[in-house]
Design a protein that fits this description.
Blueprint (H helix, E strand, L loop, with lengths): L1 E2 L5 E7 L2 E7 L2 H23 L3 H12 L5 H14 L3 E2 L4 E2 L10 H11 L5 H20 L31 H9 L1 H5 L3 H10 L3 H5 L6 E2 L2 E4 L3 E3 L5 E3 L10 E4 L2 H18 L20 H15 L7 H13 L4 H8 L4 H21 L6
Antiparallel strand pairs: 1-2, 2-3, 4-5, 6-7, 7-10, 8-9
Length: about 375
């Protein structure tokens, strides 16, 4: 402890091998300043070595920045904001406030049970998968000796899957009813729906398509619409996945739709594309928002009396019609941008089975 030239007192002390300095106007305040500094340092060490679940998540999430997309960071943040607020009894603590080392299998089971109170099984499984990922990494960093998440089993799906309801493929009859009704023809997004069912492209891929992506008789799928960390829609730099970066051959129907869209763009924007070079946009020229399209689709479904679907159903319908027409599943995989053949078959293998049955029924072998 010493007195400085400016009249203030200074004191140094060491904490975990490092020297720190505090300053005050008198001795009494100096010792209080040292106490507060030590307390602050001890809390920092405790937070680093024995963090709560949410404290560790913040570090974990920051470490992933730059390694995952902004959309992934945003989704994680929304999910964790739900998880951290769940009250765990008898601790009477929010899950996010429980020390990582103190989380038990019983706490995790209660978390899972409370998440299930107003959510579907698939959503709960997704939430718990994030918890498992976080705690698995904490174990790898030796903050935990044992990860209790290994004993948590996923809920078995009890609800109908989206691919059987809103994402299902339209039957040929439904397809005809949908695309022939007046409400469809009046929709500002009619060309987008027609383009989707003829290419199998995802809504985000259609919304990110530029005229410069179409050449040599091919659509070059390069990028998709995504959201940044703050939830704002942006045109991404890449496709959804590595396999999503692909080419789709043009046919007469697709070319006709593109020409029709370019004519619409000339009326709206004075050129074949919007100012941002995009072919398909929101009605005012901004980035396409699938929610607005889905609203129109729902109204069209109601007007022709078919069960509601979403924009993604056109992708499933394209795949179904392609297989029914005899397209090789491997080619379909590449056109859809699936990363594996098994993914295509898991989604649309039943269509191929129906095609096989029809083929066998029509087969007659003279003996």
């Amino acid at each position: 402890m010493s007195k400085r030239k400016d009249g203030r007192f200074t004191k140094s002390f060491t904490f975990q091998g490092k020297r720190y300095f505090v300053y005050a106007a008198n001795n009494e305040d100096l010792f209080e300043a040292e106490r507060k500094k030590r307390e602050e340092l001890e809390k920092g060490v405790d937070r680093r070595n024995n963090p709560s679940f949410y404290e560790y998540y913040e570090r974990w999430s920051e470490d992933r920045r730059g390694q995952v997309t902004e959309a992934t960071l945003r989704t994680q943040e929304k999910t964790i904001n739900v998880i951290k607020e769940i009250k765990i009894m008898p601790l009477n603590k929010k899950f996010g406030d429980i020390k990582l080392k103190e989380i038990t299998i019983e706490d995790l089971r209660e978390l899972q049970k409370k998440l299930k109170e107003n959510r579907q099984c698939e959503t709960v499984n997704y939430y718990m998968a994030l918890v498992k990922h976080i705690m698995s990494d904490a174990t790898k960093q030796r903050l935990l000796d044992y990860n209790p998440c290994v004993l948590i089993k996923n809920y078995k799906r009890q609800e109908e899957t989206a691919r059987d309801t809103i994402h299902r493929a339209l039957t040929i009859e439904e397809q005809k009813k949908f695309f022939s009704c007046s409400r469809y023809k009046e929709s500002a997004y009619a060309n987008i729906m027609k383009f989707a069912i003829n290419t199998g492209m995802r809504a985000g891929e259609i919304g990110a398509l530029k005229s410069t992506d179409i050449y040599d008789g091919l659509i070059h799928v390069q990028r998709t619409i995504t959201r940044n960390e703050y939830g704002i829609y942006i045109i991404g730099k890449d496709a959804k996945t590595k396999a999503g970066k692909r080419v789709i051959p043009l046919n007469d129907q697709i070319e006709a739709i593109l020409e029709e869209q370019k004519k619409c763009n000339k009326i709206l924007f004075g050129s074949e594309t919007a100012d941002n070079g995009l072919l398909f946009t929101a009605t005012e020229g901004g980035i396409l928002n699938v929610t607005a399209i889905d609203r129109d689709i729902k109204k069209i479904c109601q007007s022709v009396n078919i069960e509601p679907i979403t924009m993604h159903a056109f992708r499933a319908t394209f795949a179904t019609r392609a297989l029914e027409a005899g397209m090789a599943p491997k080619i379909l995989q590449e056109i859809l941008g699936h990363k594996s053949f098994s993914m295509t078959m898991d989604l649309y293998g039943h269509v191929l089975n129906d095609t096989k049955i029809n083929a066998m029924n029509g087969l007659k072998i003279d003996i």
